[in-house]
């Protein structure tokens, strides 16, 4: 167990905000996690993964928890599937690389997403037509109140677009410690998104899909090791089809996709509009506010271009939301968590 006091969180958030935490504690087992929860009962708690989906807006006057549990093991298999249980602190992309190496598929479209297994199951990360929920069988979690362990089935996680029960009614109540994925022994590539299919080429394998996804991401998205960011800053808005039709009369070239559900509710007649397009139309692509920039290659991403302060990022995000609302009548909301 590692406990440090009054430390900078700069190495622990990909936006590179130089804020401080009163306590930073890292555990290496569920028992250690329980001991920390007992020790710091009543203190504000924040469990982080790779810090790749959050924006620290100020110092954190409480305990920042991080997992150093990083193992994965096969817990079951049959002729078609293999069930892999991964610990929360394992870097998701390291797991995916190993699985692709073994020819096990299901997660390859999520290659190169920054982040760790636990947070990716809270956030239901997604890319190139696949979401984590498509392969998550169940998650194991520890109750913050009493340390009790509970297993949540996929259905109980109430997954939606970048959403789960852990971001809603159970926010701040559980820490996911393990995720069980049901993965395929027989490869069924999912190549319908954008130009993925042409990028992959003939005779795809889990590894060739992984490599193609990495190439596409590298062209469009900043390397968090080189330029501070938290990936997509906003969610793509889902609007009623009538609203999309109204806009299409004014903007016939507006990209739009059928969306299956709105905030978890199944429904017909819903449309997803890329926030990147809305933001670009408002003229924000490449623009700066203080040290924060709307990324020039993908305006859905805000970057820390030049020693941005939390305020710079917050102000830029607010200005973008305001303009999109004024021009299109659509409220876009951050996917990044403000702390
Ligand atoms: N677009 C523009 N201008 C641009 C870039 C994109 O108008 O400069 C429009 C285009 O119409 C394009 C569309 O946006 O077809 C979609 O772009 P892209 O395929 O890059 O995907 P996205 O909707 O912008 C989402 C995820 C990404 C994920 C990609 C690929 C969200 C919030 N973001 O972005 O996830 O990698 O799809 O699946 O859903 C992340 O969550 O951090 C993330 C990077």
Order of the strands making up the biggest sheet? 6-7-12-10-11
Q: What's the total number of strands?
A: 22
Overall shape: globular
Strand content: 25-35%
Low-confidence stretches: none
Number of helices: 8
| Rg computed from alpha carbons, rounded to a whole number of angstroms | 20 Å
SSE-based structural type = alpha+beta
CATH architecture of the largest domain: 2-Layer Sandwich
Tally of domains: 3
CATH topology of the largest domain: Uridine Diphospho-n-acetylenolpyruvylglucosamine Reductase, domain 3
* CATH class descriptor name of the largest domain: Alpha Beta
Described by strand count, sense and barrel closure, the largest sheet is: 5 strands, antiparallel
| Terminal-residue CA separation | 24 Å
- Average the pLDDT over all residues and give the rounded result: 95
Order of helices and strands: EEHEEEEEHHEEEEEHHEEHEEEEHEEEHE
Ligand set: uridine-diphosphate-2(N-acetylglucosaminyl) butyric acid
- How much helix is in the residues? 10-25%
């Amino acid at each position: 167990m590692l406990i440090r006091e009054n430390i900078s969180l700069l190495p622990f958030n990909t936006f590179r905000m130089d804020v401080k935490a009163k306590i930073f504690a890292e555990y290496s087992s569920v028992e250690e996690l329980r001991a920390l929860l007992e020790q710091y009962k009543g203190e504000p708690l924040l469990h982080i993964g790779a810090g790749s989906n959050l924006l620290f807006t100020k110092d954190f006057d409480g305990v920042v928890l991080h997992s150093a549990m990083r193992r994965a093991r096969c817990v079951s298999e049959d002729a078609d599937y293999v069930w892999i249980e991964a610990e929360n602190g394992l870097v998701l992309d390291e797991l995916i690389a190993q699985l692709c190496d073994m020819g096990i598929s299901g997660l390859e479209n999520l290659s190169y997403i920054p982040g760790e297994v636990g947070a990716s199951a809270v956030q239901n990360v997604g890319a190139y037509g696949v979401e984590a929920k498509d392969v998550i069988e169940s998650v194991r979690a520890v109750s913050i109140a009493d340390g009790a362990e509970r297993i949540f089935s996929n259905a109980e996680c109430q997954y939606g677009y970048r959403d789960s029960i852990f971001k809603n009614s159970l926010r701040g109540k559980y820490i996911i410690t393990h995720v069980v994925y049901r993965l395929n022994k027989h490869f069924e590539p999912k190549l319908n998104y954008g130009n993925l299919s042409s990028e992959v080429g003939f005779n795809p394998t889990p590894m060739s899909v992984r490599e193609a996804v990495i190439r596409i991401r590298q062209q469009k998205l900043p390397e968090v090791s080189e330029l501070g960011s938290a990936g997509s800053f906003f969610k793509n808005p889902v609007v009623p089809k009538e609203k999309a039709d109204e806009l299409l009369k004014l903007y016939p070239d507006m990209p739009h996709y059928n969306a299956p559900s709105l905030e978890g509710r199944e429904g017909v007649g819903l449309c997803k509009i890329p926030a990147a397009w809305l933001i670009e139309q408002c003229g924000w692509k490449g623009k700066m506010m203080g040290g924060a920039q709307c990324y020039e290659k993908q305006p859905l991403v805000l970057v820390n271009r030049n020693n941005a302060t939390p305020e710079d990022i917050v102000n830029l995000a607010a200005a973008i939301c305001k303009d999109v609302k004024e021009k299109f009548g659509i409220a876009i909301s951050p996917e990044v968590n403000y702390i």
